[in-house]
Amino acid sequence: MFLQTDDQTIDDLRLFSKRDTAGIFDLYNNTHTRGGELLLQEMFRMPLADKQAINRRSSIIGHFCQFNTLFPFEGSTFDMAEKYLTNRNEQSNHGMQQTLSEKDIQNGVTAVIALMQQAKQFIEDSSIRNIAAYEEERGLMESLLADPVFVPVLSEKSKGKIAYAAITAFDVLLRVRERQKVERLLSYIYTLDVYISVAKVAAKRTFIFPKALERGTGELSIEGLYHPELQHPVPNDIAMNKNRTVVFLTGANMAGKSTFLRSVGTAVYIAHMGFPVAATSMEFSVMDGMYTTINLPDNLGIGASHFYAEVLRVKKVAAELKSGKSVFVIFDELFRGTNVKDAHEATVAITLAFAERKNSRFIISSHIVEAADELAKNPSIGFWFLPTKMKSNIPEYTYTLEEGVTNDRHGMIIIRNEGILEILKSGRRRAV
């Protein structure tokens, strides 16, 4: 079972790099193999939606983190093995016969033998045997390596030069007859590569391993939450449950609302992958889907304005809710693309409708603080804000959540501090 999401959410959370900007994926990617990197990308696009699967993966990575487990294979060995195995002596697209040189075959056979022997040594280590959550995957590797056809492979002296006749026999065994089994072993090793890569990140950055709770409980409790890419983050706590299904977030421009929303969204998303997150503790109810709207572009391809793009986004979420799914939803500045009156009415109507969906959770930020008066009548809606402290005429931001609603509006102060009006006035005088 996988968490349902979409490209908008993946873009909002900046999971993958764009142009010269690194993504969250890059932060977790310390893989040693190309196959491991591709698998990690797949995991990022397909978070889990099963409590047991999430907690099992989290437990495996947690143990590797605790024991500082090292990846027991050389990257160069993998390169040779993959080059060797990807060549089947078949016709190319141009009709040319693709063949390996004797040296390529010798290097490839030697590399695969080394990988298989190292894999056997790794899974027989007592510290690996004692990881209960990893037992299923370890058992699959053990069963595969115990196949009688691989006895000669595992018996081959690792440091000795393999005779030409033996190379030929091993080539037929590994690249032809038992190729699928060898490739299956590689897939297990790629998974191991991902686990150890992520474990290193957890250890280096002191990330914690969230605990997944049963679907339907609607619990979300995060302490010491921060965005993993920040150099000097300010941690915050967040709690949602069956009594608080919606959070209405307010704050002035630049107070940190979008960063906080990305922090929450990233933590919830990464937690569903079974990966460690940037916080001091976290428990969460498994959800069916997650959808965010933080940086929604105009859909010029269908002639849609920003407001209409927002409407379509809300419609998509409504369809997911109608189907009975439990979803985690973030809207940053809901209905910013229309006039204040329509935005006010729409924000109140949609937020109240969301509040009735007891098995889903919603965080909505807004500049329309007047909406809070009507929303406060619903006990399922909680109110937080990010304050601004004025020092003389200079706004200072704490980035620390407080309960309630703020009326902070400092747009004109910032405009005046930047001297924009003076620039425009002086420019007009020169024009005369």
From TrEMBL:
One of its GO terms (molecular function) is ATP binding. The keyword Nucleotide-binding applies. Keywords: ATP-binding, DNA-binding, Nucleotide-binding. One of its GO terms (cellular component) is cytosol. Residues 244-432 form the DNA mismatch repair proteins mutS family domain. One of its GO terms (biological process) is mismatch repair. Pfam families: MutS_V. Transmembrane segments: none annotated. The keyword Nucleotide-binding applies. InterPro entries: DNA_mismatch_repair_MutS_C, DNA_mismatch_repair_MutS_sf, MutS, P-loop_NTPase. This is MutS-like protein. It comes from Pseudobacter ginsenosidimutans.
